[in-house]
């Protein structure tokens, strides 16, 4: 009797799980927004684009014990703001950083616009 009750309970549980896996009628799920998707040269800030860009493209060498920390340490907004001319020279003008050349044209344009605006937070 207990074994049969266990099988019935398991069957009911499986039916509930399967019923919960049905398709919603809410339409298609939209694609997640692209980071910086709504960011333009006019509204770019450290908070809405530049911080994440520098974290992903610079911190592997210029943070912690990375090899680039002997030249410059990325430690957030103030470390960039205090070195805008240097960042502009190395990344925008001379295009020496990042060393793997991994900035897209859009990323480079937004970084330049941000620097030209004085590096708004």
UniProtKB/TrEMBL annotation:
GO terms for molecular function: electron transfer activity; heme binding. SUPFAM superfamilies: Cytochrome c. Keywords: Signal. Residues 1-19 form the signal peptide. InterPro entries: Cyt_c-like_dom_sf (IPR036909). This is Cytochrome c domain-containing protein.
């Amino acid at each position: 009797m207990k074994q049969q009750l266990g099988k019935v309970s398991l069957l009911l549980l499986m039916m509930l799980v399967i019923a919960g896996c049905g398709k919603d009628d809410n339409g298609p799920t939209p694609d997640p927004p692209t980071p910086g998707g709504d960011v333009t040269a006019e509204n770019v800030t450290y908070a809405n684009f530049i911080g994440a860009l520098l974290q992903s493209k610079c911190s592997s060498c210029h943070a912690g014990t990375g090899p680039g920390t002997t030249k410059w340490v990325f430690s957030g907004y103030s470390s960039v703001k205090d070195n805008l001319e240097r960042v502009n020279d190395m990344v925008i003008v001379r295009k020496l950083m990042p060393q793997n050349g991994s900035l897209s044209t859009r990323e480079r344009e937004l970084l330049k616009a941000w620097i030209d605006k004085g590096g708004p937070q």
